[in-house]
What we know:
mainly alpha, 6 helices
Amino acid sequence: MTYQNRLKDDFIDRLFKAILLLENEEECYRFFEDISTVSELKSMAQRLEVAKMLDQKMTYTDIAEKTGASTATISRVKRCLFFGADGYRLILDKLKKEEE
């Protein structure tokens, strides 16, 4: 079953296919440095860390202190984590498996 959503279009399909072609962390750094701003990349990394901390049942205060994320960002990530497309859940579960 293929996931379909409101973001789906040819440009995004090609972007995701390009990302899936990256073979290692160095290639990821090189590609994402060119395709995004430092700020955009840091924001994405921060949101993933916030999702991980929310999954660990950390408080908003602790998350804000450790990540620098605003309560609005934490709230938005929490809404996606628990009521979104399960993208955070998917990657958090894969990351947990990899750490084992």
